[in-house]
Amino acid sequence: MEAASIPTGERSILERSPLARLPDRALKYGLTALAALILALIVYFFIRLVGQARPAFAKEGVIGFVFGNDWNVGAEHFGALPLLVGTLITSVLALLIGVPVAVAAAVYATELCPLRLRGALTLLVELLAAVPSVVYGLWGIFFLAPKLQGTEQWIADRLSFIPFIGGGLVTIPNYFITGLVLAIMILPIVSAISREVMSTVPADHKEAALGLGATRWEMIRLAVLPYCRSGIVGGAMLGLGRAIGETIAVTILIGNAPELGHHIFSQGYSLAAAIANEFGEAQGVHRSALFAAGLVLFVLTLLVNGIARLLVVRAARASNSAASGQSAGGMVPVADAAAGA
Q: Fewest CB atoms within 10 Å of the CB: 53, 99, 247, 318?
């Protein structure tokens, strides 16, 4: 043992030389620089948008611009509230319609679909992401909107007692058609993320639920969906961000009317559509107002991403707590649910 000892002052044969560790350090510092560059780029975009939007904010005020209800280019009055409301309404409609369908498609593809059809179904859903947004817009305005106008009017007449849903005449285009088409557009990304998360559910959890007498639906409800809660929430928020930033399809479908609609079947406007429609001919304060609209859209997207991060973290903690409780209690909740059924 003494003969094999390393003399003092000499490097061990197991110790790597500084030159050998150079690639690791280069990779570490390179990736750190790229991450810092992304953050610097976001800060740069924000500063540039603020600088370009300053004339509009100076004329209208920040509060007056964001919450003003008068977008009149001819009179040089720029209140972005109709644009902001149109963006939020169509995005929320897309979320409410698209996420349940996307999650249902993911559940069917992972748990219920025959194996020989699973690949074809997954491919068909993912192909929806390959369709250009202008095609969605034209299909929605020339085919979908005329076909659904009668149904929309029937709903508006029957639900006239519900504010903002019933009452009034249905116009083409409108908020609802825009939200419906956006729901189809976000379906691939939400479904893909949900499907990938569901495929990671341990088989032991599902087999334990079935072994305790749960039906297939009870197994999905008690073992699969709670485990995937954080991933589904993250996918939904990514879909919401996609819907908020969509431009061409919304420009075609929403109606480009810079006023607050009285119900979801009336025309409206959005931040992205206003920028796309008016930026080419904008000058002076009008151009600055469009930059300010872009800044509002930028901040709104950041807020959505921040809220999404918080929801994912909370959902992950809830899933971990439920998994720990099931592990400690020997799947007692599943057994109770199966016995109650």
A: 318
